[in-house]
Structure formats: structure tokens, C-alpha cells
Amino acid sequence: QVVEGALEKVSQLEGVTFEWKKNGRESAGVIAQNVEEVFPRAVKEVDTLSEEGETHKVVDYNQLSALFIEAIKELKEENNYLRSMVEELKDINS
Fold first, then answer.
1. Cβ(14)–Cβ(39) under 8 Å?
2. 62 and 47 in contact (C-beta within 8 Å)?
3. What's the rounded Cα separation, in Å, for the pair 17 and 63?
């Protein structure tokens, strides 16, 4: 199924920068809890390696690519529509 309302979903996501707790390396991404609210299928719970029986959430970025592709297509369609409106207005004002 094609992702419906992809642009709206992408607009609800927040890109963030952060430092990994384990090594302090800087990185960028999205927060799993935020993604889970918008596109739950892209979030999985996995076992935490350091604590027996604990889990944490991870984002499957491959799933987000479908969202991004459809959002880009929505933007392209909107852009084409706006370009045609600009051309119509130019014709009217000529």
C-alpha cells in the first residue's frame, strides 16, 4: 500500500543531534518515541545488551525511506500545481 499523508507524517518528525551515551560520539537521527507516534511500524523494541531483561526502542530507518519517497512525490505534485497557477496568473496579467 502506498503511504497516505506522507508529507504530514514527515512534518511531525523531528530531526535531532545527540551524543551516544556509550562513547560520546556525535550523531544525528530521530527519536524512536516520536517516530512511534507518527509511523509505529518503523519502531521496534530490542533487548538492551547491558541490562538483562531490559529493552529499548530502535528506529528502522529503511522503513522511513518509504515515507520520505512519498513525501517528496507529494511536494513535487504541489510544486507542479503551484507552477501551473503562476503561469495562469502570468497569462491573465499579460
1. no
2. no
3. 20
pLDDT beyond 80 at 50 = no
* Sign of torsion over alpha carbons 65, 13, 70, 68: negative
SS3 93: coil
Residue 24 falls in which region: left (phi positive, over 0), alpha (psi -120 to 50) or beta: left
Query: How much is the pLDDT for 48?
Result: 81
Phi–psi pair at 15, nearest 5 degrees: -80, 135
Q: Name, in order, each residue with C-beta under 8 angstroms of 41's C-beta and a sequence gap of 6 or more.
A: 63
Alpha helices in the chain (DSSP H): 6-12, 32-38, 61-92
What is the DSSP code (8-state) at residue 24?
A: -
| Size of the chain, expressed as the number of residues it contains | 94
Q: What is the mean pLDDT of residues 10-20?
A: 95
What DSSP designation does 41 have? Answer: G
